[in-house]
Specification:
Layout (H helix, E strand, L loop, with lengths): L1 H21 L10 H15 L4 H7 L4 H11 L10 H12 L2 E2 H7 L5 H13 L3 E4 L6 E4 L13 H16 L4 H7 L4 H13 L4 E5 L2 E5 L13 H21 L27 H5 L1 H22 L29
Antiparallel strand pairs: 1-3, 2-3, 4-5
Helix pairs in contact: 3-4, 5-7, 8-10, 8-11
């Protein structure tokens, strides 16, 4: 059943998220993850033609509850370019400590009930603290130390790397499309795009009055300590795009000569095995071949323009490798 497959994929995805949250030895905030999953999944289901009532049923919610949660996570009517949840949190972080009445007044176009609901969620998530009662209720953003988190390191650089990956995969692309792919506010995304354009890392095209961003080359060097987040995003996006393309094509099985899909191979070896070195070196060998092929294709493309009647194609190949060692016995 599809539900079993979905549960298995979710479980593996949560393992990845938990590992990313602690990968650098520090804790990353996960308070927004549930909201992001809900908002993105709802948006994708709608894009695939599923109605609100069916989506609410799929989440196990009453239709009104579903609409209320969507409203809290949709763009604020009082502040453009941010969800109500993010807008209220940002306001408290900038202006706090702040009275509840002032928050309600600032976001009066979103309605008291919605804003109060967001405030409760922010307090429950530990992102905001609340003191006082009734008219004297005050909200203050909690510090990373209070949340047990480390200060983000080079967050602007991480955002820039993710934008470069997204533009390469989807470009030429409008900022609106990037906003759907990346978890950046409109203001943050605009700042990153301006910075990358000024440095020449992105180019800009204009088509029928629309501004499009383009990145024709993406290489994350081996050993790049600052690029691992972008590499993870690139790898994961490649896997997901291959799987979704295969599923949307309606093919439940694979053919030997097909161009969409993937294969996983397992090699059981041991110390002294005649093919152990060959298995261990498989990824390195494929990297060398892929790098040489990329350089050859880029050299050809520099000297030859694509024919006007030829449809462009991008071949995305994902290669990963992991060695799982048997656990040593505790017995003497």
């Amino acid at each position: 059943m599809n539900s079993l497959l979905i549960d298995a994929v979710v479980r593996q995805t949560t393992v990845l998220i938990a590992t990313l949250a602690t990968a650098t030895g520090n804790r990353a905030s996960l308070a927004h993850v549930a909201n992001e999953v809900f908002a993105n999944l709802s948006r994708e289901l709608k894009a695939q033609g599923v109605g609100n009532k069916v989506i609410a049923d799929m989440f196990g919610m009453a239709l009104r509850t579903y609409h209320d949660r969507v409203a809290r996570l949709s763009e604020s009517h009082s502040q453009q370019g941010a969800s109500l949840w993010d807008a209220v949190l940002g306001h408290i972080q900038r202006e706090g400590p702040v009275l509840r009445a002032d928050v309600l007044r600032r976001f009066d176009r979103d309605g008291d009930a919605m804003v109060r609901g967001v405030l409760r969620e922010l307090v429950d998530a530990g992102l905001v603290s609340r003191t006082g009662q009734d008219a004297a209720t005050v909200y203050r953003a909690t510090t990373p130390e209070e949340q047990g988190l480390a200060q983000p390191v080079s967050e602007q650089e991480v955002a820039a790397r993710l934008v470069l990956v997204a533009v390469y995969r989807h470009g030429p692309v409008k900022p609106e499309k990037l906003a759907q792919v990346l978890p950046l506010s409109g203001e943050s995304l605009a700042a990153v795009l301006e910075r990358l354009t000024a440095s020449g890392e992105l180019s800009v095209e204009h088509n029928d009055g629309a501004v499009l961003y383009r990145n024709d080359r993406l290489v994350i060097p081996h050993g790049d300590a600052q690029g691992w987040q972008a590499a993870v995003f690139d790898h994961y996006q490649a896997v997901v795009s291959a799987l979704t393309a295969k599923l949307r094509a309606g093919r439940a099985s694979s053919a030997r000569d097909e161009t969409t899909g993937g294969s996983t191979y397992h090699f059981d070896v041991w110390e002294g095995h005649p093919h152990r070195a060959e298995a261990f070196g498989l990824l390195a060998e494929q990297r060398v071949r892929a790098s040489a092929l990329r350089e050859a294709i880029e050299a050809h493309n520099r000297d030859h323009e694509r024919p006007a009647d030829a449809r462009g194609e991008r071949v995305i190949a994902y290669m990963g490798q992991h060695v799982l060692a048997e656990e040593e016995s505790d017995e003497a």
